[in-house]
Write a structure and sequence with these properties.
The structure holds two protein chains of two kinds. Chain A is mainly α. Chain A has two domains: 51 residues, no CATH class; 209 residues, MetI-like (MetI-like fold), CATH 1.10.3720.10. In chain A, 75% of the residues lie in helices and 0% in strands. Chain A contains 14 helices and no strands. Chain B is an all-alpha fold. Chain B has a single domain, classed as MetI-like fold, CATH 1.10.3720.10. Classes of the chains: A mainly alpha, B mainly alpha. Chains A and B meet through helix 1, helix 5, helix 6, helix 7 and helix 8 of A and helix 1, helix 4, helix 5, helix 6 and helix 8 of B.
């Protein structure tokens, strides 16, 4: 009995110290962001002097060449539509694939699964040219469009899997009552899918917010740069100004971290759901 | 007549998605493949040969002299170290954490690396390997080992990024393994215990076989991530010093948007696509098998 008690204690100790090790770099980032550079240049773990200040955040927010205030606004202006649009378009298509019959339906599904594995570099050059021809280069509309298209395969796959688990009887009885396919989808099916839609929205929003590559190739005027694009610009010229850089990093990560904190259940369900199902 | 109308209205469900995909994904993919072959020289091997024999992609001299080894080999090295480490660590963590109080908090703090933008992950990696301000060197210093800015030296830049990315990614396999473990019914273990099985025996005869499907998913997703790695390298080292931490996705970006060599860039992208497709085959076939059922 005593041995069991000891092993329980040991496993708690091990688990908690591992979590501590994992969190240390984040703690360091936070400490560096709230202290003057002179205090952290030889290590944020030294606490002989400790004068917390928000000046790094103010500097990052109003950075002379890459103000994050603007970057965060731009990122929101891209991430919100780039979440709503593909979720609607992909959900309605997913319902079609789950419930109706089409010629070549299986091949279509296979193609969509294969598209999920594509590296984004595979579309970079033609997308750049296409956006230039459409005069959508360096516009949020262009970036939102590409993100929407890029998000469709996985959202479609995820929602289709969800739809196939729903009982078909409700929809059939509505059809007998004379409701059209679209009405059934909007009035009956969608309300039943709110948890899945939230999961998809959380993951898609985080992906768009965190994206760097697409923004890098499609958005270039200084006032339009997204938040993630501004991070590499905050490094400082002659030496790395860790204070401002880490304050900027904290600001950019705070959005996905808060979403994860509040909607964790949906995030995990989304991630596990579309890989595990 | 009603049938035709129904067919039309039903196809309207999928047409917007297909149109977007065709214009902004499928057409660009086809166009990139075309560009990768298009050249004045005899078409097939010319571009591919030029790219594969360039030092940026494969640099065999590296085996004698050290880094750089070329972007392709760097990606392979990334897989070689990162894949077994994160998969194994994730499994171990998932098992350790299972019966611990406050496992939610522990899991969240390990998973945090997955939640943040990878561009921030790259900043933190660079920061923790910094000579004076970095926590890795503080620990090494305590142990009496050499301290240096690990990402600034060609022989250690790539390895620093790889180990940093292990820290970021382990949460992924831990979360999926945790989910997998929770689906194994407790009765299996109880029955095995009645039969007098040891914990080790139970692990190898019950836990591990039942985790096989989730392992396929974890391994596939991890390989895809390792092949597509970009942001971390861009912000931490920009592939340097001297190409010592370059990777395929970054090299594609350099070819396309710094040197404007679209053919070479398309070749690198296409190679990357074939690698990701090959890696995803087990997952795709398991999806198809499930559809047949």
């Amino acid at each position: 009995m005593k041995r069991k008690w000891v092993s329980t204690l040991l496993i708690h100790l091990l688990a908690w110290s591992l979590a501590l090790i994992w969190i240390v770099p984040f703690f360091g980032l936070l400490m560096t962001s709230i202290r003057p550079l002179s205090e952290v240049i030889y290590g944020w773990w030294r606490f002989e002097e400790f004068n917390p200040t928000l000046s790094n955040f103010v500097k990052a927010w109003n950075h002379p060449t890459a103000p994050l205030s603007q970057g965060m606004r731009n990122s929101l202006a891209v991430a919100i539509p780039a979440t709503v649009v593909p979720i609607f378009i992909a959900s309605i298509a997913a319902y079609g694939l789950a419930r109706f019959t089409f010629p070549l339906k299986n091949y279509l599904f296979l193609t969509i699964v294969a598209l999920m594995t594509l590296p984004i570099q595979m579309i970079a050059i033609p997308i750049f040219k296409l956006m230039k021809d459409l005069r959508l280069l360096n516009t949020f509309l262009g970036l939102v469009t590409v993100h929407s298209a890029w998000g469709i395969p996985w959202i479609l796959f995820f929602m289709r899997n969800y739809f196939t688990t729903l009982p078909i009887e409700v929809e059939e009885s509505a059809r007998v009552d004379g409701a059209s396919d679209l009405v059934i989808f909007l009035r009956i099916v969608l309300p039943m899918c709110v948890p899945a839609l939230v999961s998809a929205a959380v993951l898609q929003f985080m992906w768009v917010w965190s994206d760097f590559f697409l923004a890098l190739i499609l958005i270039y005027s200084p006032s339009k740069l997204l938040a993630t694009q501004r991070i590499p610009l905050m490094r400082g010229v002659y030496h790395v100004d860790w204070g401002v850089l880490s304050a900027g990093a904290v600001l950019v990560m705070i959005v996905p971290v808060m979403i994860f904190a509040f909607l964790q259940r949906y995030y995990i369900k989304g991630m596990v759901g579309w890989t595990l199902k | 007549m009603a049938r035709v109308k129904e067919k039309i209205s039903r196809s309207l469900f999928i047409i917007p998605a297909l149109a977007l995909l065709a214009t902004f994904v499928v057409y660009p993919v086809a166009s990139t493949i075309y560009l990768s072959f298009a050249t004045g020289d005899p078409p097939f091997p010319a571009n591919y040969w030029a790219v594969l024999s360039s030092r940026e992609i494969i640099d065999a001299r590296g085996f004698v002299r050290g880094f750089p080894l070329g972007a392709l080999l760097h990606n392979f090295l990334w897989m070689l170290i990162h894949l077994p480490l994160t998969t194994f660590l994730g499994l171990v963590l998932a098992i350790i954490v299972r019966n611990v109080r406050g496992s939610g908090v522990i899991k969240s703090s390990i998973f945090l690396g997955m939640v943040i933008p990878m561009i921030v992950g790259g900043v933190i990696i660079r920061f923790m390997f910094d000579k004076d301000a970095g926590v890795v060197n503080a620990v090494l210093g305590l142990l009496g080992l050499t301290t240096r800015s690990w990402t600034a030296h060609p022989e250690s830049a790539l390895l620093a990024l790889i180990f940093g990315s292990v820290w970021l990614w382990t949460g992924f396999s831990m979360i999926l393994y945790s989910a997998g473990l929770s689906t194994i019914p407790r009765d299996y273990y109880e029955a095995a215990m009645v039969d007098g099985a040891t914990p080790v025996r139970m692990f190898f005869s019950i836990t591990l076989p039942l985790l096989k499907p989730i392992t396929t998913v974890i391994v596939t997703m991890t390989i895809l991530w390792e092949l597509k790695i970009f942001d971390i390298v861009y912000v931490a080292t920009l592939g340097g010093p001297g190409g010592a931490s370059n990777v395929l996705a970054l090299q594609m970006y350099f070819y396309a948007f710094r040197q404007f060599d679209l053919n070479r860039a398309s070749v690198v992208a296409t190679i990357l696509m074939f690698l990701t497709l090959a890696a995803a085959i087990p997952m795709i076939t398991s999806v198809i098998r499930r559809e047949r059922r």
